[in-house]
TrEMBL record:
Keyword S-adenosyl-L-methionine in annotation: yes
Source organism per UniProt: Tuber aestivum (summer truffle)
PANTHER family xrefs: 7SK SNRNA METHYLPHOSPHATE CAPPING ENZYME, BICOID-INTERACTING PROTEIN RELATED
GO biological process: methylation; snRNA modification
Family matches, as InterPro entries: Bin3-like, Bin3_C, BIN3_SAM-bd_dom, SAM-dependent_MTases_sf
Highest classification ranks of the organism: Eukaryota, Fungi, Dikarya, Ascomycota, Pezizomycotina
Segments of this protein annotated with the region Disordered: 1-27
Bin3-type SAM domain location: 28-256
Enzyme Commission code: 2.1.1.-
GO molecular function list: O-methyltransferase activity; RNA methyltransferase activity; snRNA binding
UniProt-listed Pfam families: Bin3
Record protein name field: RNA methyltransferase
Comp. bias regions, Polar residues: 1-21
Length: 266
């Protein structure tokens, strides 16, 4: 793993990631707590997609229209492709899927006979690209606002923050705002300050930027997100029995002239 970008190769215990992880059928609690209506038929951006687990779950369980995953680590982008292919290989080939469709083909069948070729429609729905989200451009984008309905930044902003400081974090949130359609949703799972200190302990190269950081996770970071054009809709804390390890914040991109106070829950 890179101690500079958090490019864990075994994140979420996706055991010694081989692209055929049997734990792929376990739902992600962070996605389960979200209001499912914001995901239904949505075009989603998964920033820091790692091994594609979240991307795959979005496609298989949450009824999204499409997902684009981006990660700075090329090896992880390739793993994401194989992981999603594996997950799709277990799906019952059916246009009107009943519950449990994602567990239709046993892991052993996929391992023995190899992944089924995902249907073309599914391949179009899940796509990945490699790059630093703050500075790079999606090679498949034709310019202009991609107009995503939902953007996810799960356990990734610490790495952007430690790489680029407060101004880089602002650029990150501004880019998310630019990539979303007006009123689109932004799901943020910030890492805690103690987690920053741990990262610096593992990689002293990060110390210089770390010591210059003034915007801390919590109120400071939320204020910065608001300055970039978002209003807070809802938050979920840890210890509420929902299986979350970190707080999850749901923001909505504000329309022109719209204030961020008193946004309705979804
Ligand atoms: C800790 S993992 C989180 C994975 C996933 N989002 C989740 O929560 O399950 C952080 C991921 O962000 C990626 N990453 C870090 N900085 C990035 C950047 N600037 N642009 C895109 N991806 C980045 C890392 O390579 C790593 O895969």
């Amino acid at each position: 793993m890179s101690t500079k970008t958090g490019s864990y190769k075994t994140y979420q215990s996706h055991a010694r990631h081989t692209g055929s992880n049997p734990a792929a059928h376990i739902p992600d609690p962070r996605l389960l707590i979200l209001p499912q209506e914001i995901l239904k038929d949505a075009r989603v951006l998964d920033i820091g997609c790692n091994n594609g687990a979240v991307t795959g779950h979005l496609l298989l369980r949450h009824g999204v229209k499409s997902v684009v995953g981006v990660d700075v680590d090329e090896e992880l982008v390739m793993k994401s492709q194989s992981h999603v292919k594996f997950m799709l290989s277990r799906v019952r080939p059916c246009s009107d899927p009943p519950p449990g469709r994602e567990e239709w083909y046993p892991v052993s069948s996929v391992r023995k006979h190899g992944p089924r070729i995902p249907p073309a429609e599914a391949r179009e729905r899940g796509r990945f690209w490699c790059g630093d989200y703050v500075t790079a451009t999606d090679p498949a984008a034709s310019g202009g606002c991609p107009g995503y309905d939902v953007a996810l930044a799960l356990s990734v902003v610490k790495w952007v923050h430690l790489a680029r400081g407060d101004s880089g974090l602002r650029s990150f949130f501004e880019k998310v705002a630019a990539d979303l359609r007006p009123h689109g949703h932004f799901v943020l799972e910030p890492q805690g300050w103690e987690s920053y200190a741990r990262a610096v302990g593992k990689n002293p190269e990060l110390r210089g930027v770390f010591e210059g950081i003034r915007v801390r996770p919590g109120e400071g970071m939320e204020a910065l997100v608001a300055e970039c054009g978002f209003g807070l809709v809802r938050r979920w804390g840890v210890g509420t029995g929902e299986g979350l390890k970190r707080e999850i914040l749901l923001f909505r991109r504000l329309g022109d002239g719209e204030g961020g106070d008193g946004l309705d829950d979804v």
